Amino acid sequence: MIVQLAKWFQKNDPGLLNPLEKFVAKSARYSNTHPIFIISLPRSGSTLLYQCLTGLFCVKYISNFHYVFYRYPYLFRMIGESFLKDYSTDFKSHRGFIQGLNGPAEANQFWNHWFGAFIEETSPNANNRRLDYIIKYLAWLEDRCQVPFVSCWVGHSFYMAHLVKQFPNAFFILLIRDKLSIAYSLLKCRRQVYGNDSTWFSIRPTQCQSRLFETAHKQVAAQVFFAMRHIQKGIHQYERQSFVVSYKELCHDPMMTLKNLQNRAAHQGIKLESRSEVEWPMAFTYSNVEPDMDKDTRAISNAFDKLENEFDRE
Description:
Elements: H1 2-12, H2 18-26, E1 36-39, H3 46-56, H4 64-68, H5 73-81, H6 108-115, H7 128-145, E2 150-152, H8 160-166, E3 171-176, H9 179-194, H10 216-237, E4 242-246, H11 247-252, H12 254-267, H13 295-311
Parallel strand pairs: 1-2, 1-3, 3-4
C-alpha cells in the first residue's frame, strides 16, 4: 500500500510544495563535493555493495523516503532528519529494492528528472536549471553533514563522462562480476518479473536497439557485452579516480575488500569513516554459473563467443 501511494504521488504531484522547497534552498551553503558512484551492471552484486557502504560507513544517500519526494530534495532531507534513524542493514534485497523508509534507493526517477539520464542509453538531456539546482543540493548535503554522498544506479555506467563533467572530484567504484552469471540472472528476471523471455529487463545499450527481435539469449548476452565495454572504457579513462571491486572478492572477504576501498578513497581525499556500532560481515554467499550448466547457459555462452569474435577484433 505504501509503495503504491508513493508511486501515485510521484506521478500526480503538481508541485504544490515548490514554495517550501525554494524557501529551504535559499538558506543553503555550498562547497566542493566528492560524490561516490557505484558503476556496475544489473545483477552484478551492486545492491550488496551499496548496502555495505551505506550500512557500514558514515555516508549520505537517497533513501526510499527521500526518493518518494525526489522533486523536493532540500525540504524532505530536512524533514527526514527529524525522524529517520541511521540505516541498519541485514544485507537483504529483492532485485535491487531494499525495504524500509531509510533503505537505500537506486532512485531511477531522481536521475531521470534532475540529470536527464535513463537506463536506455542516450545522450544526457538535462534541463540546465535543474542540473545546477541538484548539483548545488549535493554540495550542500556534503557540506552540511561532512560525509560523502553515495549513489548506486545501474544507469551510471552510461554516463561516467557526464558525471565527471558535473562532479570533477567524483570517485567511481567499478564492480565486476563474470558476464555469464550476470546474463543468466537477467534472463531469469525476465521470466520471474514478466513471465516470458521477450520483455526487456533493465539497462539497454544503444547497440541493443537493433537486436530487439533476436532470441532472448542473444539479447542478454549483447546487453551485458556492450554495457561491460562502457565500464571497461571507464576503468581506462578514469583510472586515477576509480577503484575496481570484484564481486567474488567482496563475497569471500568483505572486510579486506572494504578496507582496501576505504584506503583508496582516502587517497582521493574522501574520508569513509566506519560506523563503530556496526559489526562487519565475515563473508557472503557467492555463486556463479558455468557454460555447461543447462541449455540457457550454453546458448548464452555461444552468443558471447559470437559477439567477441565480431567486436573484440576492432
